[in-house]
Structures are given as C-alpha cells and as structure tokens.
Amino acid sequence: MTIEKLQLAQFAQYLKARPRDCHKGLFGHVLVVGGDTGFSGAVRLAAEAALRVGAGLVSVATRPEHAINLNLVRPEIMCHGINNAKELAPLLAKATVVVLGPGLGQSSWAKKIWIRVLKSKKPLVVDADALNLLAKKRISYANWVLTPHPGEAARLLQMKKEISQQDRLSAATAIQKKYKGIAVLKGAGTLVVEENGIAALCEAGNPGMATAGMGDVLSGVIGGLIAQGLLLPIAAKLGVLVHAAAGDLAAKEGERGMIASDLFPFLRQLVNL
What we know:
- This protein has about 270 residues and is of the alpha/beta class.
- It has a single domain, classed as UDP-N-acetylmuramoyl-L-alanine:D-glutamate ligase (3-Layer(aba) Sandwich), CATH 3.40.1190.20.
- It is built from 11 helices and 10 strands.
- The protein has helices at about 40-50, 65-75, 90-95, 110-120, 130-135, 150-155, 160-165, 170-180, 215-225, 230-250, 265-270, and strands at about 5, 30-35, 55-60, 80, 95-100, 125, 145, 180-185, 190-195, 200.
- The protein has a 10-stranded mixed beta sheet with strand order 1-10-9-8-7-6-5-2-3-4, with helices on both faces.
- Helix 2 links the parallel strand 3 and strand 4 (about 80).
- The mean pLDDT is about 95.
C-alpha cells in the first residue's frame, strides 16, 4: 500500500487569506462536549484549539460547576453547564461540528450525553472516553473522525495494545473498516486512514508531545477545520500535520516540560502561512 506523506504545502489551497467582508458566521460553530467532574481542562484545551485554527464560534457543553470557571479563563468560549442530555438539544441545533469526548468520563451523565450526541447526526470528532464508550458498542458512522491513541485503539479492536502497535497501519485500517469515517491513530508517526484504505503518514512531531492534553488540542484543531468547511479527510490530515508542526515549533525551547497549551500561538501561526 502506498502511504501519502503529509506536507503543509499540499494544503495551501485550504488556508487562503479571508475576504475583507467576512464575518464569524462564515467559519462555523464548534461544540465541544465533555468535561465531567474534575476534567474541565480537557474541554478548555479542545475549545481554544478550535478557535486558534480559525473557527468562527466555539461553545462548550460541560458540567455546570465547570462553566463559570471556563468563562473566566477564556471568555471567547461560550460555556454552558448541562445537567442532562435534554439540555444539549439547543446547542446541537446551532453546531456545525461536535467534538465529543475530551474529559467526558464514563459516568451515567457521560453515557447519556454520548448517546444524545450520536443521535444528532452532526459531523463528529470523537476522542478520549467517547472512544472508550464506543468500544463497548458496535456502531459505525460515515461522518466522524476517530482519534484514538494506541490504548484506545486496542480497546476499539479488542486486542492488546502491544499487538496494535506492532502493525500500526493494519490497526488504523481495521478501525476505519469497523467504525467507518476517518481513523486517526495517534503516536510517533500518526496515521490517517480514510475510506477505501487510503492512508497518510505524519512524520512531524516529537517526544515532548507525549504529555497530557495534546490529544484534546488535536481534536479541537480537527473540529475547527471541519467547522470552516473542510471535508473530513482533509481536516483530519491537515489537523494532524498542523498539530505536529506546532509541537515541533514549541519544542525549540526544549521537549521536556512542554505542555499542550504551548502549541496555541504556533497553531495560529501555521494556519496563516
């Protein structure tokens, strides 16, 4: 199988300068759903990443106790505290794309919200515990991007992580075939597999990115690109590349000690080349 190697130059047509008379409504509305008790940071990282790559509007649906604090630290994000899945309806109605999973957990609250989002039939970016919930059910959907790390990939395929890592391309391809949509297998040499087994490899990135929150940032980046009208395969490949390249720029100050939010200024820089 031929594997495409991702390069920023190939995506220049999707990152053109915006017209002078544009407005935020032209660039989509990302809804980030997650942040169960104690995990507000994950939704904040995903939401800000979506803003930093150019989404016009970003909302967060999370536990009520998190909403006020999130508004304080990043007022550009519209934060909504939800007690139950029914309260998601008006937020889903306004969303262009939903990022489901950052900090979601697997509580009763999380499971009901997970089901409600899946019923919405919106384009989805599925990450973290939303993937772990998916691993317990055989559901396929053409209009989503799945972003597992090796452990989540193993659970999706019901195998040991060591086995899935031995042949990462086969694992990513198997996830795509089983669940449809686009499969993004994160790790050293992130792989993106789309329909018909078409695969792409990202050679950018570095060991400093092996830290908490990096996956949340990636899910927000991909969601932000989908919101702006990019097709899912393009958004997944460009999102993976921009995320990794931002990590490499951030690592110029040292890989050890780099944190996920260090990528934000470089995300903005890279989508404005």
